[in-house]
């Protein structure tokens, strides 16, 4: 068991080093020598777990996806309503981008490698499917206006958040990401949320607290 624990710890150390390299340099700019430097492990330890830079990139994407899905499950277990869950999932995604190198690297890699359906696009597809289900429940519960199409809303939210975090990264290193997210909701919610839910949702959207801890 101790040997397995050490192997798991080393694998995670390699993933974190790879994430730092991919986040800063992208897939094309990252090298195995640079990843070794960031990870502070031997070449043998790296190759024991990953056969190539490509394998490392897919592993970072998979880990980022797992982290996002786990966070979404925690949000769904505690949110008071489907619409609150939608807002809290977006806020948790923002928190992960600000605090987790693996998430930042995974998002960058999905954009660089995601030219077709596969591991690089799975996070966006699963994120969209989760939002479609939540939006459908929100409309059934009267939290969304009856005219709102859950599929169209989910696609819009995923695309808007992705573009928003990219602009935030380019202009401020994502230091204004929470502010931009609050702006998005302030503009969008009045046109999609039921009047009864709107004040609560706007209040929630303006809060900057972290969701998952």
UniProtKB/TrEMBL annotation:
Keywords: DNA-binding, Transcription, Transcription regulation. Pfam families: TetR_C_45 (PF21935), TetR_N (PF00440). GO terms for molecular function: DNA binding. SUPFAM superfamilies: Homeodomain-like, Tetracyclin repressor-like, C-terminal domain. Transmembrane segments: none annotated. Coiled coil: none annotated. InterPro entries: ArpA-like, CprB_TetR_C, DNA-bd_HTH_TetR-type_CS, Homeodomain-like_sf, HTH_TetR, Tet_transcr_reg_TetR-rel_C_sf. PROSITE patterns: HTH_TETR_1, HTH_TETR_2. The keyword ATP-binding does not apply. Residues 31-50 bind DNA. Residues 8-68 form the HTH tetR-type domain. This is Putative TetR family transcriptional regulator.
């Amino acid at each position: 068991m101790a040997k397995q624990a050490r192997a798991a710890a080393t694998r995670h150390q390699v993933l974190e080093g790879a994430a730092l390299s991919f986040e800063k340099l992208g897939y094309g700019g990252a090298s195995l020598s640079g990843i070794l430097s960031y990870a502070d492990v031997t070449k043998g330890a790296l190759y024991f777990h990953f056969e190539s830079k490509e394998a490392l990139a897919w592993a970072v994407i998979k880990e980022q996806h797992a982290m996002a899905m786990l966070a979404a499950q925690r949000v769904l277990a505690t949110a008071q309503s489907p619409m609150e869950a939608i807002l809290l999932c977006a806020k948790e995604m923002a928190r992960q981008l600000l605090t987790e190198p693996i998430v930042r690297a995974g998002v960058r890699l999905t954009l660089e490698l995601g030219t077709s359906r596969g591991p690089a696009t799975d996070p966006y597809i699963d994120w969209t499917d989760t939002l479609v289900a939540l939006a459908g429940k929100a409309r059934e519960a009267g939290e969304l206006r009856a005219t709102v199409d859950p599929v169209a809303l989910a696609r819009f939210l995923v695309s808007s958040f992705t573009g928003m975090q990219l602009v935030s990264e380019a202009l401020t290193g994502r230091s204004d990401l929470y502010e931009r997210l609050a702006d998005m909701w302030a503009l969008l919610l009045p046109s999609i949320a039921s009047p009864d839910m709107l004040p609560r949702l706007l209040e929630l959207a303006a809060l900057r607290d972290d969701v998952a801890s």
